[in-house]
Design goal:
The chain is an alpha+beta fold and 81 residues long. The chain is 32% helix and 12% strand. The protein has three helices and two strands, in the order βαβαα. It has a two-stranded parallel ribbon. Bound molecules: flavin-adenine dinucleotide.
Length: 81
């Protein structure tokens, strides 16, 4: 991605393959940098898999960097066992 995203030209366009947490995080980061992003997901619909998601402290730093830290932190609760 050597093309500049600033200036008079239109923003660079990026295709992200996969709409999992990795693809969506990459897409959000790119959008925040001024790229025009399209996420391609092979599944016809997004659904839940597993019992939940376990995130380490660094993941919350990443959420803060992506500008969604407040939204993702609010519903979290500590485990009780
Ligand atoms: C059954 C199961 C249960 C799990 N339970 C938990 C849990 O309880 N807690 C937890 O923390 N983690 C859990 N995990 C792990 C967690 O799901 C993964 O660590 C995480 O989803 C990885 O994110 P990702 O974005 O890298 O990949 P994925 O979530 O796998 O996303 C990749 C996406 O790319 C799409 N894709 C792939 N190839 C293409 C293509 N060529 N074109 C378009 N789209 C494409 C796929 O359809 C998928 O939606 C579980 C995993 C599985 C399989």
């Amino acid at each position: 991605m050597s093309e500049s995203t600033s200036g008079a030209s239109s923003p660079s366009q990026v295709l992200v393959a996969g709409g999992g947490i990795g693809g969506l995080a990459a897409a959000l980061a790119l959008v925040r940098q001024g790229f025009k992003v399209k996420v391609l997901e092979q599944s016809p619909e997004i659904g839940e898999i597993g019992a939940g998601i376990q995130l380490g402290p660094n993941a919350f730093h990443a959420f803060d960097a992506l500008g969604v830290g407040e939204k993702t932190g609010a519903p979290c609760s500590p485990t009780t066992w």
